[in-house]
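QA checklist item 7 of 12: single-chain prediction sanity check.
[x] sequence parsed
[x] length recorded as 217
[x] structure emitted
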Amino acid sequence: MTSYAAYVFDAYGTLFDVHAAVRRHAAEVGPEGQRLSEIWRNKQLEYSWVRALMGAYADFWQLTEEALDCALTMVPKVDPSHRDTLLEAYWKLDCYPEVPIVLKALKDRGARLAILSNGSPAMLESAVKNAALDTVLDDIFSVDELRTFKTAPEVYELVTTAYRLYPETVSFQSSNRWDIAGAGSFGFRTVWINRASAPDEYRDLAPDMVLPNLQKL
């Protein structure tokens, strides 16, 4: 048996590659594709934080659409006619190569496995089924029922309430450093999946572990 009662994963950037949608259509999008994808992701997150602070919730799919519209405006060399194609691809993002193997191994050790994400329920269900992770995940927790976003403490509390666990018995994995800061502040054991070898930003809210991917979890 694992030493943690549950392993909970952020979805976008941790299990699923947020840049896969643009990469899948790289030839059509052209050389500015990477820049477009980075702006798309950054604006998607920015909009979630701003709306959470204002108490003006809109679901994550709406924010994803609005973020792409902004990115297309900021990268005018990309033909905006690709908008619908890119949005469709976002529903079926690739998961990272190690994800299925790691999740199955944790499941075999007796751990509960769940996603805790800003994503809307429909987005998450689509991504999970596309990656065939529905056979290993026990639950998908979306912020949608709370109508706010991470890093609000009540988001992380969704897990402890549902599972009737103390925070320290939950291992939380995210590639987003700000998410790790929020989860650690709540009391989770945190593992920062630093896929991009990014510098640490929240030194007073340190992760319990830093890994380049999920393989050594």
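[x] summary fact logged: The domain at 6-17+93-211 is CATH 3.40.50.1000 (Rossmann fold).
[ ] second reviewer sign-off
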